[in-house]
Predict the 3D structure of the following.
Amino acid sequence: MFIQRVVKSELLTAVESERLKTFMLEIIPHFIGGFITCFVLCYTFDANGQGSSIWFTAMALNAVLITLLYAAYFLLRDKTSATFWKWPLLFSISCFAAFLALSPHVLLPQTDGAYLNALIIIMIAMCLAPVSVMALYIESFYAYISIPIFSVIVRMASDQVSPYLIFLVFFFWSTCIIAGWRIFKLNILGIQYKLQVEKAQQSAEKANQAKSHFLAVASHDIRQPLQAIELFSNALSERHQLQADPTMGKLQSSINNISDFLDSLLDISRLEAKNIQPKPEHLFSDQQLQQLADQYKALCHHKGIDLYTRCAHDAMYVDPVLFNRVISNLLNNAVNYTDHGAITLSTRQHGDWLTVSIQDTGIGIPQDQLQDIFTEFHQLQEHDTTHKHGLGLGLSIVQRLCLLQDWKVEVSSVPGEGSCFSITVPLGNQQLISTAEKKALGYNAFQGKQIVILDNEQSIRQALTELLTQWGANAHSFETPEAAIAFTREQSVDLIISDLHLNDGKKGTDAISAIHQQSRSPIPSLLVTGDTNPVTLQTAQQQGPLILHKPVRAAQLRIACHRLLQNTI
């Protein structure tokens, strides 16, 4: 009855269940303490040995009844509702309160003011001790506190105690009744808010799972045809030597923009799943940075801005893929927010560290947004609609990749004048830079190599076959694992390129493992997938093959295949 005044009707059943569970777990120590106190009372106020024994025996039987009641609850709680236990609880608590109410009459048969006062204080303490838990069931609490207190008042009146003292006890009972109601409301509201928060969290988790599933499916479906477009455009460009054609450049730029968009989503997913493991190498900073700068010169020229590089021939110790991702994001950000002037890419050595700086003459960043720019999906509010808008993930990825590798990232900016982003990375050892890395990657490594392509998308098989054939390899494409395994049974293979998900739920990793077992020696393998699920990717990574994510750029594919064929991975 009381609970319906506090709880929303749709949450009533859930609140009833939660308050019963809380009450049962918390009240047991109070009952144990109450029984021990009754034993002490019986021993201390033993004015009538027989009456005290009978009273204590009754309290002990009541304690056994309560113990059985709680044992039944823990055994039957899955088979009974919370409302079922309301009346058994009220009955057991009322019995305990009734026996406690007999103590002034049984333990003090003779008038003794000192003993009576002491007993009153002890009984008041026993009534107050469990109030925080007992108030969960306000009816039971009212019975528990009212029966003993009125019994004390009756004993005090029979002993002709001062009316002022009787009034004081009555006033104490009144305040307990009011306080009990307030504690009851606070407890029940607390349970209700807890359940609402849990419900909101569950809804948010379901929405997040649905969003993740949608993004994964959409990303995979987009990456498949985009991969074919990427490979076909590169094959067309190389066949007809169209690398310098403006139209081909614009086509490749558009493909790269879509790829960057998907890569940003993938980077966030992999970072959240902690599925990125840095593999640092000793590299020349000027070579890495110049290659990155060359990729952005055409875009800078199109916008009418200059791109300068002032990079010393220093060695650095970084993961080249992650380093390129960080610098590319910063260069892309600088180009997007700069309409005139220049962008300068420079390095500065200090101690055991190398600082790479990207300075621009763009719109700048307000001081109150310098930290916010590293949060996901944040974009400058002052940025007008004439500039390119992204997802607002680039700088978030930069910061998280730097934290992953203990790199220091700093930013300074003046609105209207430009910004400067700096990344500090460890210096490397020039003597440890491998000869293979110093040489430019060519096509000689592909000449005459037997490469198996396993993919369920015909367009991707055709594009890969055409591109690898132009590089000098003998490419053999298959739709099913069985066909690929049968081919490798008859002919030796130098490299396997497989999709992760094949037809009929089959996995490329299983096909690669079967080919390895058949050949009795590991074959360099490359897994190309559009799946962005962190768990799936982690499982695939544990099985050994190198993983690239669709859409794979032709240059990226060539580097990966070259390293696998040269056994430098």
Remarks:
- Confidence is low (pLDDT under 50) at residues 382-391, 436-441.
- The domain at 441-565 is CATH 3.40.50.2300 (Rossmann fold).
